[in-house]
Specification:
The structure holds two protein chains of two kinds.
Chain A: E1 7-9, E2 26-31, E3 36-41, E4 46-52, E5 57-62, E6 68-73, E7 78-83, E8 88-94, E9 99-104, E10 110-115, E11 120-125, E12 131-136, E13 141-146, E14 152-157, E15 162-167, E16 173-178, E17 183-188, E18 194-199, E19 204-209, E20 214-220, E21 236-238, E22 244-248, E23 254-259, E24 265-270, E25 275-280, E26 286-291, E27 296-301, E28 306-312, E29 317-323
Parallel strand pairs in A: 1-28
Antiparallel strand pairs in A: 2-3, 2-29, 3-4, 5-6, 6-7, 7-8, 9-10, 10-11, 11-12, 13-14, 14-15, 15-16, 17-18, 18-19, 19-20, 21-22, 22-23, 23-24, 25-26, 26-27, 27-28
Chain B: E1 12-16, E2 48-55, H1 75-89, E3 95-102, H2 109-118, E4 123-127, H3 130-141, E5 146-149, E6 166-168, H4 173-186, E7 191-196, H5 200-216, E8 219-225, H6 240-249, E9 258-262, E10 282-284, E11 289-291, H7 302-313, H8 319-338, H9 343-351, E12 378-381, E13 386-390
Parallel strand pairs in B: 2-3, 2-4, 4-5, 5-6, 7-8, 7-9, 9-10
Antiparallel strand pairs in B: 1-3, 11-12, 12-13
Helix pairs in contact in B: 1-8, 2-3, 4-5, 8-9
The chains are: A mainly beta, B alpha/beta.
């Protein structure tokens, strides 16, 4: 059995043990403290460029065609648009005050932004940049998940502790589901059957059945030798076949690998310190974590669930997306 | 119910009924009525969960005008939590309200409590001195009313004088002293001198600091007392005399790393930083101070509540505001999780072993089962910014690292279990 070790490299490094050379993807990482975005080549795992962006960048999203990356600069009350071909900032969007997280509709026409200070979800038409609607939700909205068919938006409110299901046609809330303390992230299963909600202080992930809008299962985590308060789930990603899920566990410094059909936690992958968010490469062979306190990102091989390498980026990395080019 | 008005009895009622509101002031009906939970029925009337806030006027004397507490300290935090509870409550058909009552510093609790009880108040947030707090708890006991202490730091209230219906969301003197001490030990500033005032509160905090030194391995190399001779706090001559008095007062100490000050009474402590005979950091009730919350704390999502509080009040959120916010939110959280407005159900939920609340402190906060003191981290700061939060890394505990702060279960003198 091949032995793999995590190599902490400041610059170049090679992916250990991958049988075929991986296609080159570009990883964009928002660095909350540096006010930059690190651009990383997924094959060489090297930082190829550092973009200066607005104040306190966190939420980051990529358009479906991979042409544009959208970045929330929350202290500047703006969303910046980065052209992936040139890696330049080409424009900005009105977001309402203090935008933290947002999602794009699958057809790429609409942006949904959580405005945490105002207890609102703002709906923006991307072409005209016009605000289409403001939806009042619970206290401190942050997590935003959009269904694969684009019909349902789920927003989580951190102090109300609910997942609000919002119809994207009427912009009205249709259901409110109570979850555990401080829900940060909402992720739909690719087949639309479930929504997974992470509770940062509650320490759990609630699996909500999308048809009945009830919690069908709650996933707990336990790591030997680690006090349970340190397990604080935030980002969640689910593979396209719906079989495996990854959960970033915050100050537990690990990513949990969960069987998305049985909900059993199968493994904990040690990455860097204070893991926030996760992103798959487009071929889903690799998943990348942002490690906020160790200032690096970790590439994890999806087939083996082994960490391959950690790469230093900017200060306090938070969000991550991967484009196909 | 009629009231006689004796001269010492200053009785002001602010009935603050807060309806459905969000910080933006809008709850747009045109977006469609927010749906109830999937299992809820429609067309239910909106019942009220009534809380009370019982307080004495804030201590006004301070050496610096910046340290004079705002008139609405504590109440503002409770009001913000009522608003947050109502935003959540709108999705569940629950509505919260707060009746605020103020009595004189040595006033009679009984009439105030009777009024609250007759107004169907079942949860009282209390900012009272220890004696009145115990009187309130004893009056409330037979009615199964929960009292939440947000102002009194006396360890005695959690030990010999604990009460089954008295919860504490503000920390004790020993928790504050331990939080500060752990940071000083982490810094390896282990040699302390202790200067304390002559009033009871000053002596009690000095006791807590001595206990912390013993507990965490610091050495108090010398002590000195500053006696209150009844002087005015702030004068037209300003600091001219103080500049000469403080260095002389702190002369001739043996070698030390930190000068600790225990001056809850605001007589001399603020004058010590930067005026000591030899250059040493000052910590305790002045200089580097431990607190339950910090007005500049932005970590752990703190920015969110700080912004909401500032927009509602025009000032920064202080420790007493946060203690009151937590108390009111505990009731709200219980009502949400049980989907109930029944006081027995809500109280039972709060008393349960697994009750916890999130309060922008990076981990869930729980009540100590043996004396109902809220476990919480302690902020260590200088008034301008957060320097650290305790417990510090490396201080271990069998059950909860937060229990390294204050008097722990094996040591408790609280007979209630």
């Amino acid at each position: 059995m091949r032995c793999r070790r995590i190599l902490l490299a400041a610059g170049l490094g090679l992916a250990a043990g991958l049988a075929t050379p991986a296609p080159a993807f570009t990883v964009y990482v928002s660095n909350e403290k540096d006010n930059t975005v690190s651009v990383v080549d997924s094959t060489t795992m090297a930082v190829v460029r550092t973009l200066n962006v607005g104040q306190r960048p966190r939420g980051i999203t990529i358009s479906k065609d991979g042409k544009f990356v959208y970045l929330c600069a929350s202290d500047d009350d703006t969303i910046e648009i980065i052209d992936t071909a040139s890696a330049e900032i080409v424009g900005s969007l009105p977001s309402g005050p203090d935008p933290e997280l947002f999602v794009l509709s699958p057809d790429g026409n609409t942006l949904y932004v959580a405005n945490e200070d105002d207890n609102l979800v703002t709906v923006i038409n991307l072409a005209s940049k016009a605000v289409l609607a403001e939806v009042p939700v619970g206290v401190e909205p942050e997590g935003m998940g959009i269904s694969p068919d684009g019909k349902v938006l789920v927003n989580t409110s951190e102090t109300t502790n609910m997942a609000h299901f919002i119809s994207t046609e009427s912009h009205a809330i249709t259901d409110n589901v109570l979850v555990d303390s401080r829900p940060r992230f909402a992720e739909f299963k690719p087949d639309n059957s479930e929504v997974w909600i992470s509770a940062e202080i509650g320490g759990t992930v609630s699996v909500i059945d999308n048809a009945s809008r009830t919690v069908k299962h709650k996933i707990s985590f336990a790591i030997p030798g680690l006090r349970s308060e340190a397990i604080q789930p935030v980002g969640i990603r689910i593979t396209a076949d719906g079989k495996k899920a990854y959960v970033a566990l915050g100050p537990a410094n690990r990513v949990a690998v969960v069987n998305a059909e049985t909900y059993a936690v199968e493994k904990y992958v040690l990455v860097g310190q204070r893991v926030w968010q996760l992103a798959f490469t487009p071929d889903q062979k690799t998943i990348i974590s942002t490690n906020g306190v160790s200032n690096d990102i970790t590439f994890i091989d999806v087939a083996s669930d082994e960490p391959v390498q950690s790469v230093t980026v900017g200060a306090l990395p938070w969000g991550v997306v991967v484009s196909s080019n | 119910m009629g009231f006689s008005v004796p001269l010492i009895f200053n009785f002001v009622i602010f009935a603050v009924l807060i309806g459905v509101m969000g910080p933006a002031g809008t709850f747009a009906q045109e977006q469609g009525t927010p749906a109830k939970l999937a299992s809820e029925q429609d067309n239910t009337p909106v019942p009220a969960i009534r809380l009370g806030y019982l307080r004495v006027p804030q201590q006004r004397l301070a050496l610096s005008v910046l340290d004079v507490p705002p008139v609405d300290a504590g109440v503002a935090g409770a009001n913000l939590a009522i608003g947050d509870n109502n935003t959540t409550g709108a999705f569940l058909g629950q509505k919260f309200s707060l009746d605020v009552m103020q009595i004189a510093a040595d006033g009679d609790i009984q009439a105030a409590m009777s009024t609250m009880i007759s107004n169907s108040v079942r949860y009282v947030v209390a900012d009272l001195p220890a004696a009145q707090l115990l009187a309130a708890a004893d009056l409330a006991r037979d009615q199964n009313i929960l009292i939440f202490n947000v102002g009194a730091v006396d360890d005695l209230l959690r030990e010999e004088d604990c009460r089954a219906n008295l919860f504490h969301t503000t920390p004790t003197r020993t928790m504050l002293a331990d939080g500060l001490a752990q940071y000083l030990i982490w810094k390896q500033w282990r040699r302390w001198v202790l200067v304390s005032g002559s009033h009871d509160g000053d002596r009690l905090f000095a006791d807590a600091l001595r206990r912390a030194a013993l507990r965490f391995g610091a050495e108090i190399v010398a002590e000195r007392q500053f006696v209150d001779t009844g002087t005015a706090r702030r004068t037209d001559s300003g600091v001219v005399q103080i500049q000469r008095q403080m260095p002389v007062f702190t002369q001739d100490f043996p070698g030390h790393d930190v000068l600790l000050v225990a001056d809850e009474s605001e007589v001399f402590g603020t004058y010590l930083p930067f005026r000591t005979w030899i250059p040493r950091p000052v910590a305790g009730t002045a200089g580097l101070t431990p607190s339950a919350w910090h007005p500049a704390s932005e970590q752990w999502g703190g920015t969110q509540i700080q912004n909401r509080f500032f927009r509602a009040t025009g000032r920064r959120m202080l420790s007493k505001d946060m203690a009151a916010w937590i108390a009111v939110r505990a009731v709200g959280e219980a009502a949400t999780r049980t989907r109930s407005i029944d006081p027995a159900t809500i109280a039972g939920f709060i008393r349960a072993d697994d009750f916890s609340i999130a309060a922008f402190m990076g981990q869930k906060l729980t009540f100590r089962r043996w004396n109902r003191q809220l476990r919480q981290p302690i902020f260590v700061g200088d008034g301008r910014s957060v320097v650290s939060t305790s417990p510090q890394e490396g201080f271990l505990h069998q059950f909860s690292q937060l229990d390294t702060l204050g008097i722990d279960q094996p040591e408790t003198r609280c007979a209630q279990q």
